[in-house]
Amino acid sequence: MTDLPIEPLIPRILEALETPGTLVLQAPPGAGKTTRVPPALLEARFLAGHSILVLEPRRLAARMAARYLATSRGEAVGDTVGYRVRLDSKVGPRTRIELVTNGLFLRRIQDDPSLDGVGCVIFDEFHERGLEGDLAFALAIEARTLNPSLRLVVMSATLDAAPIAKLLGEAPILTSEGRAHPVETRYLPRAPAGRIEAAVAHAILQAIEVEDGSILAFLPGAREIRRVAEHLQDEQLPESVTVAPLYGDLDARAQDAAVSPAPPGRRKIVLATAIAETSLTIEGIRIVVDSGLVRLPRYDPRSGMTRLETLRASQATTDQRRGRAGRLGPGVCVRLWTEQDQRARAPHATPEILAADLAPLALELAVWGAGEGGDLAFLDPPPAGAMAQARGLLTQLGALDGRGEATPHGKAMARLGLHPRLAHMILAATRRGNGRLACETAAILSERDLFRGPASGRDAELRARIAVLHGERDEGAGVDRAAVAQARALAQQWMRLAKVGDKSVDDLSRLGSIVALAYPDRIGQSRGEGRGQFLLANGRGAMLPETDPMAGEPYLAVAMLDGDAKSARIFLAAPVERTTIEELFADRLVTVDEVRWDARSESVVAVRERRFGALVLERAPIGAAATAAVTEAMADGIRQLGMACLPWTRDARAIQARVEFLRRLEPGGWPDLSDGTLTTDPGAWLGERLTGMTRRAHLARIDVVDALLDRLDWRRRRDLDRLAPTHLTVPTGRQAVLDYSGETPVLAVKLQEMFGQRATPTVADGRVAVVVHLLSPAGRPVQVTQDLAGFWRNGYAAVRAELRSRYPRHPWPEDPTAALPTKGVKPRH
């Protein structure tokens, strides 16, 4: 066996685990921590024949590491070394080292909190910071209180070790330098508008021509992997080159083929997701082509939905990927971005506990008896808001009781190892005689789609996927046979765990009711605004293409959608009957009498509605609604329509303007009668005038002047007429209208009518001089002034000269202040 950099540390590792029994081990990829540390502990005195559990974040890593360890001992997997992953396990009575996924470890520690018979738990690749890994770590620390001899080891390549060591009771930290060969990094940025698949294929083809060895290309997901494979196929690669996809949903045989070395004389191009970043050593890899992207689940607490987002990989992740090129010799890493972009990336990926749906975590904590987990050793505590939402969902599903403790139903849900929604669906459907169909539905929803091709081109019918599982639909073109086999195996496993009997009914008409059990908040009701538009019970919008067979259904139970905030695209759903909704959720239906303004008919409608969440299942008119409710609805109608819906008169607008003038003059002394304020609360100023009104046409009966004046007490009414009169008496004796619509009141009057008036007229007890618009005999403005005396002295002569020539029949005295005012022409002689 080749010496590895970790081996000089083995004595210190054993010493640290002798006492205090905890350890943080930092070692870069290739140092040998996964393959050397567990075997070194087998004969340790402190283990005394107890087993060693090695926790791996990924199934493929667990299987491959177990195979390598067993082979290095000259044994078969399942002898001294074994593994347990979903749908597959190889362990025997002599197994001492078990490589298990975090999810299966959680099932084991929940069933046996003291981990009886386990001497050491090793957390491998802990820097990935998955939700299950963080929880497993916290529960393992708790388990030491029940089993003080339990040893804990955390192994990581890039994570800051100090916080982990602190949670482990100031555990010692050991560091291995590793043995990485030099890797040349080349930056080959793609065009901003270019597709990542074309850029990756181009970089691979370039590398094939100028470099030796096999290639490992990192892509965000299976969809991009398939597209790159198609690009390479179109380029007619040399016969000596094999293209192998590698992602989590591949069956075990295909994954093994991807990580096995290329035959002599051949080269391999492995197109992989993040599954190949750590733990695995793929023989012959000398070149890494990195897209720089990663696809991660992101939970939106507003919608209660998780969507996969394609993000820029962190610096730590890209460094991990780069290191894959130097595991076995000098290598090359091609990055499809700039060196400046690399420096701008986040140092580490966001831990899943800070961005994920926390319903699974909340259920595990409740079953453990830890409440919201505040007393557990989390590196990052779960966010309080997301945790509260998760516990609310669990309460709705019957997993938590009124005290927030796990119910028997909740504990049964946890034992299935599924998302709580799907676990509840299986258990509830099993009680209703539909357990098999529920298990098949859960299997379809837990794995990749059974149909190939872009999601945008597929129908959303869940029934079609069930038909494939039942063999009622041809598994030919367009069907992913590996996904079908995986789903069937998962369904069988959950049928065993849920004890589904042979009499379970496979009636596909019940499929919608089964989906509704898991996703009551995603029951959709047709909006009646064209095919494919739905309102969900959670208040969100959702849509199907008009061509989808279910676009015309009145109700859907939606299992999968993209999480868009405004109108999410539905990917998987099944029709459901209204009567089924009423039966399943009778305790959550509410009957509401609603009196509201209807914008379409511009009238008040009074209806009694039977609701499920945001959905109105049934509506009937109410004969006689409460007067106050009708009045409030009319007021709301005015708010929606705006002030223009009222019968405003010139006098009413004048009152508004006069009061506003005084409000500016005496801040705080006068009410705000502006349109904006009146619109905010029409009921407050229209009051009983709205009684008996039910539609827009009735508003014509309102006396707006009277309503506005009612906003003033008797003293303010008196002051209004005194301080802001509607008219002023001009020298001819005529009552001229004052206009208060501007900043200062305006008096528009013919110039001749002001003869004899020496000073500018005023309002507000002489505090404000009005603006005088002096008009020609034809009523056209010839001068605007707020200083009438100054105009007579300085401006009148020029105006007089012009007006005399234009209006010779009118009097134009040289001294207007001494002349008599007039409205007409000079008398004839």
In this structure, how is the largest beta sheet organized? 8 strands, mixed
Q: What's the structural domain tally?
A: 5
What Rg is obtained from the alpha carbons, in whole angstroms?
40 Å
Euclidean distance between termini CA atoms: 137 Å
Q: How much of the residues is beta strand, in percent?
A: 15-25%
Strand order of the largest sheet: 4-3-5-2-6-7-1-8
Description:
The chain has 829 residues and is α/β, with parallel strands linked by helices. It folds into five domains: 7-175, P-loop containing nucleotide triphosphate hydrolases (Rossmann fold); 183-353, 3-Layer(aba) Sandwich (Rossmann fold), CATH 3.40.50; 416-588, no CATH class; 592-716, no CATH class; 727-818, no CATH class. The protein is built from 28 helices and 31 strands. The strands form seven sheets. Strands 4-3-5-2-6-7-1-8 form an eight-stranded mixed sheet, sandwiched between helices. The mean pLDDT is 90.
Descriptive labels:
single chain, 829 residues, alpha/beta, Rossmann fold, 5 domains, 6-stranded parallel beta sheet
SSE arrangement:
Elements: H1 10-18, E1 22-26, H2 33-41, E2 51-56, H3 59-72, E3 81-85, E4 88-90, E5 97-101, H4 102-111, E6 118-123, H5 131-146, E7 151-156, H6 161-167, E8 173-175, E9 183-187, H7 196-210, E10 214-218, H8 222-234, E11 241-246, H9 252-259, E12 267-272, E13 285-290, E14 293-300, E15 305-312, H10 315-323, E16 331-335, H11 339-344, H12 359-368, H13 384-396, H14 408-415, H15 420-431, H16 435-446, H17 462-469, H18 481-497, H19 511-518, E17 523-526, E18 533-536, E19 541-543, E20 555-561, E21 567-575, H20 578-584, E22 590-598, E23 603-612, E24 615-621, H21 627-641, H22 650-665, H23 675-680, H24 682-686, H25 704-709, H26 714-723, E25 727-729, E26 735-739, E27 746-750, E28 762-763, E29 768-769, E30 771-775, E31 781-785, H27 788-794, H28 796-806
Parallel strand pairs: 1-7, 1-8, 2-5, 2-6, 3-5, 6-7, 9-16, 10-12, 10-13, 11-12, 13-16, 19-21, 27-30
Antiparallel strand pairs: 3-4, 14-15, 17-18, 17-20, 18-19, 20-21, 22-23, 23-24, 25-26, 26-27, 28-29, 30-31
Helix pairs in contact: 4-5, 7-8, 12-13, 14-15, 15-16, 15-19, 16-17, 16-18
